[in-house]
Amino acid sequence: MGKENIFLEVKCCNKLVPLVLFRGEMMMKVTRFQSLYQLTVLPRMFPVNCYIYEEEDQLTLIDAGLPNSYKGIVKLIKECKKPLTNIVLTHGHGDHVGALERLKKSFPNAVVSISVRDNRLLRGDTSLDKDEPKTQIKGGIPKGLKVVPDLLLKEGDRVGSLEVYETPGHTPGSISLFDTKNHGIIAGDTFQTRGRIAVSGQIVRSFPFPAFATWNKEIALKSAREIEALKPSLLAIGHGNVIEKPTEKIQKAILEAEENMNMNRVK
Ligand SMILES: [Zn+2]
Fold first, then answer.
1. Checking DSSP bridges between strand 191-192 and strand 184-186, what pairing results, if any?
2. Residue 7: inside a domain, yes or no?
3. pLDDT of 47-71, one tens digit each?
4. 31 C-alpha vs ligand 1 centroid, how far in Å?
């Protein structure tokens, strides 16, 4: 892979701060968990994950990473020797759609989907609905993306074995995908596990970027509780390692978020 700079923008104190993250050969780390492959670029510095879920006769890509995730994704698809039929985006942030345009060109039959709500983010629209809290939508939003989703998702929809759960907070239309076969959950940026596990919006000093990019902490905490209630066998998120048997860790992260937000109720 060529030498390229990777740029990301984070919104901090209402300013867009460009980050030059990387210059040099891009490496991709692939880790397998039953039917789920985690593909990570910049695993040491600024890990950005996407996932391939392998069904009997097809593959689903969940998120499209950074532009330089492209080659690693294509290589794994070829190794699996199955068609890529779906590309599902957990939310509309730039570090989850980076390779989307090239992938859609290479796999034109793959159905691209995102939630109804975050499709607006994907189009660069950061306006809020009347009934949404007036906290600002943050994070890098794609500019002039040429790919138009083929399918807009809502709670309960299925993409193969993956069931859609609406888990807003990080963005208004963030979704998670529950693996109905193995009971793992691919949860976008509803949590981060880089540094340590944290609910979206809670700052982890060694890796604060997902928190900087979070729209609404209260709603993110509510979604974290919904994920906890599913008792997933595995938690796969956008930034950080997969956690197997994650319930205790999820509970700890929820408790910490509650304490931080002074939301502990006296029992
Ligand atoms: Zn994000």
1. unpaired
2. no
3. 999 999 999 999 999 999 999 999 9
4. 21
